[in-house]
User: What shape does this take?
Amino acid sequence: MTGAAFRVFAMGAMLGAAVFLLAPLAIIAAASFSPTPVFDLPVGGASLRWYAAVGSLDGFWPALTLSLEIALLSTAVSLVLGTLAGIAIARGAMPGAQSFAAALTSPLMMPGLVLGIALLQFFRSVGLTQAWPSLALAHVVVTLPFVARTMIAALSRFDFTLLDAARTLGSSFPAALVRVMAPALAPAYLTAGLFAFLASMDNYPVSIFLTDARTKTLPIKMLQYIEESPDPSIAALSTLILLATLALLLVADRAVGLHRLAGLAE
Amino acid sequence: MTMAPQTLAKAGEAAIPRRERRAALTLALPALIVLVFLYALPLARLLSLSFLGDAGFSLEAYGRILGDAYGRSLVWNSLRLGLITTAITLVVGYPAAFGLAMSKGALRSLFLASLFLPLAASVIAKAFAWTILLRSHGAVNDALLLLHITDKPIRMIFTQTSLIVGAANIFLPFMVLPIYAVVAQIDPRLTEAAATLGAPPLSAFLRVVVPLSLPGVVAGVALVFSLSVSAYVVPTLLMGENYQTLASAIAKAFLLVRDPALGSAAGAILMAIGLVVVVASNRLGRASGGR
Amino acid sequence: MGRSLEQDLTKVEIAPAHVAVTGLSKRFGASTVLDSIDLAVAPGALVTLLGPSGCGKTTLLRLIAGLATPDRGKVSIAGVDVTRTPPHKRNVGVVFQNYALFPHLSVAGNVGFGLKGRGLAKDVIAAKVARALDLVQMGLFRDRPVTALSGGQQQRVALARALAVEPNVLLFDEALSALDRNLRETMQVELRRLLKNLGVTALFVTHDQDEALTMSDRIAVMNAGRIEQYADPQFVYARPVTLFTMRFVGICSELRGEVDDRSEGRVRVDTAIGPIVAVGEHQIGAKVVVATRPEHVAIGPAGSAPSVGEVNAVEGRIRQIIFHGSRARIAVDLGDEADFRVEVGGASRIPAVGEAVRLTWPAARSFAYPDPGPLP
Assistant: This one.
């Protein structure tokens, strides 16, 4: 196989994969315009009623708010923790840095379901029964590996002598971190934050065990909708989420470049 | 001439002052605390609970899963789903990652969007969309009829075919992105060097590029396998009760039937699988040249 | 010296060329990177392509290696037309700037890479690898991972790897530029000695004129896609054909003016500081730049005699002295914003800054070139 033939084959594979990946999204978007209360393609005319109905879905706003709160909080906490840990590892001064880095990213490969029941039982055993704090803590564990993976990669490429230079020019160490390192790491923060946020917003396996009847995150609510009354409002909701993510991706592409996002997501 | 490399490395290590080491540990401490108290400890506890019977240490829960044909089928179904999904996503995803690395500009952005966007769409909505695509009068059957591959619609819903297709669809980005991240960083000069040394293009690819892509493959395989072996939503929505996995047993045990010991045992087995994946991917990743 | 300009501008070699390039052109988009290049390299010769970044030297090297295809022209190696031959069939060895060592293979694995898949027996390969490593004195590092090596060591391995396949010609793409200064100078000498012993034909690409002068049998000075001069180092230094070459290889002092008289091989140029006689063939009225190398200028106490015949003389004041140990560089202010650079031996009597001095040099050491216009 020559170089040119391989190129065609590889790009064809990617093209096929892209179509394969986008097909269900297209279906979801199409189904959101269905004129009938059946989650199906809009045969017979399009309707926007399901978009209007999204807002009045039972328990939708509390679920959305909860998911956003948890996602933002856990992402923020993970960004801080992950950056600090990343500095410790990248500086090379920490004993067992390699193992620590591996441990930090291992939750990605641990089945979320397992983590969910483990946390459920653990929280119960220490007397933590409220849903909100349980979810918040659990989502830190969910988001931390995404952040750690990205930040460790980015920090290992960061030139730490820049901090020394800033300090000789009069900045204290924390001030140097803010004025010199934060801007250099901005793309990594964006990537890490994006992945962490999405991971939290879409998380099902951990959250299902920690929610209760009154406190449900959006994905849990969506499963409930599907099981109870699978009408196209779910499609409308999903399409709205997709559009919001598309907007986020456009911003990320302008700011950093999508390929950098993917390259950092090692 | 110059010092041997090992001597240089050892000299470097001993030179880290204790103050810097303490500072590093302080920075790492918060993350370490999270890891220990919100991750390692709960998991260890889960493991220990799985060995708990009515009268102390007991393998009873494991017996109920592994000793029973039904229980074993749960394990086997989970593993099967994991293996087949991983295999398919690897076969499709490996060349796709290269295609992505070779693309530029708007096409590359399009490809990347096609990988990122599905991550934001809920698994639930996507699985539902597949039921539409795969039903008797759905798009896939229509296409097959149009291309004369079949002459009447194939029943695909609620079959293992739909499960595999749906799982592959949902987990494909997790295979492509890690491989892409590694492949994109392979120095193009290396294939040029191979060519100047007399290797024809295919040989250069197999002898230089493929070995260097392995850390990405290890990462992708590990991620997809652990995600698909423990998948709950996909099998439930696409096959309902017809495909029981460890994941569905766990969900039932904790959410419906209240059988914590069984759930913990099933969870422990999944955790064991997860640990094997973590350790193996670490070893293989390091051996193949990854960081 | 006794060689005429024409002999050097003709690129045809008397002996059959080992590497020959004729009419080679390459464009990238709208810009012409190589403009109809002709070059012939004799077997066993060490030739340097010297020029600033963007002059096309790397492109030329890559075209010879087969890593790029020309728009027009021909490349032949060992008498065979390889213009359409892919790189893996050309049997050229390339040493890259960043070495391009395969990180997943050991030193031995790298060096033996080109030998595998040629149907050679394992012990034959091992022997060739050992020999190549010995040539670069890296025999002890046989089984090391290449990622643990220093820059200089990696460079040697890259060289051994290229040598192991016994190529027709070795191409070095700025291969020494990543090394630190001392190591680079050592490597230049060692490399030349090694290549000469092996009788290998080699082409170097560099922007470092010292490296070119040290290592080459011949230098091809390149500028904006063209070869300005192709000759041995001494000739290029002492008899630069163009102002670009004069400026790029070594330093010089320049005086602008107009030709107001000419005779056999000489022109008299009316400059801001008086008449200067230089080597040249320009018409009267032509605008020229007269360039002189600093080591040919003698410095003495101020007098009043103007230039006479074959000796140029100007007066000025010492502006700056930079002591370099074995020599000293002196900048002399000649008035009218004209500046002259003089180089004297470090042990000679060096005048003080501000002192009035008289500079003299033979007309045969000044060259008049067409004035290219004001510097951008």
Summary: Chain B has 13 helices and two strands. Chain B touches chain C at residues 1-2, 5-6, 9, 187, 189-190, 192-201, 203-204, 207-208, 211-212, 288-289 (CB under 8 Å).
